[in-house]
Amino acid sequence: MSNNNYETGRLNLPFVGHCTFGKAPVQTDWSKIDADVAILGAPNDMGTQWRPGARFGPRGIREASTLFSFGHAGAYDFEDDTMYLTQDQVRMVDVGDADIVHTDMAQSNANIECAVRTLLDQGAMPVVLGGDHSIHAPVIQAYAGRGPIHILHIDAHLDFVDERHGVRYGHGNPLRRASEMEHIVGMTQIGIRNVSSSNREDYNAARKAASTILSVRDVRRLGCAGVLEKIPRGLSYYLTIDIDGFDPSIAPGTGTPSHGGFLYYEVLEIIQALAKRSGGNIVGMDLVEVAPAYDPSGVTSILAAQLLLNSIGYIFHARSQTAKTPGATFAQL
User: Which domains does the chain carry?
Assistant: First the structure.
């Protein structure tokens, strides 16, 4: 056994053991969650309109996340000269998946909402692995009574369809459904581009619901600082990230790829900046639409895992710095 201070117990390298998210401990008793972050899978892709397969997203992301887990205490970022994901900053557990009942969208959504509400009641920040984007509606509904919350939505598509052929809870509807909830007070939707499922009326409805809509080209013109100025201050923030917000050249494993998307650092720097500005007051995340079958190389799942782990690190480092500041407060859930 190594005497290195960064390693205790078994080595547990990435290619051995169980594929929990980031090799986090498993906690299947949701009444006994003693952690800052709870990783929850929501493997439902019944809302998809074209290529299915995102139901296997949670498994793919979990397996990919082991790449970044070497059994040491935290992750050093030499550009920031900072240790992230240390045990004194964030404790993380993997709680498994919400129960999905095949062909029963209503019951599956109810199970997702119940799972997320349980995690919140236990004091953990939910990080939800989709599934298609329809899972966002029950996830954000679980935050009822915990607002006001502003949503940062990263996606190629607006997802603001109201109803089509009677469908209100597909993967084209979740941000419209979120906008109807009392605890949601606005959105910043970035990466929106090209032909989409939403029409002009949907865009008008989004703006009426206090949404700021920015394309990839808008974001590049504004830069990170300019985008941040578009996001209202002094609120709690929730992140919903569709992997097709990224360009399919780096994220091909998704059901509805859209060319002209973001590169990795364009998204990561915005999340890091928001975490830092808000003192870590990001109260939850979901990442959706990873469909591993369309990417035999696995780079899409690796991108998702890397983005989530870095984001969790930024959020809880910012919280730890806020806690060290005299007189600082953090809006607890």
Answer: 21-323 (3.40.800.10)
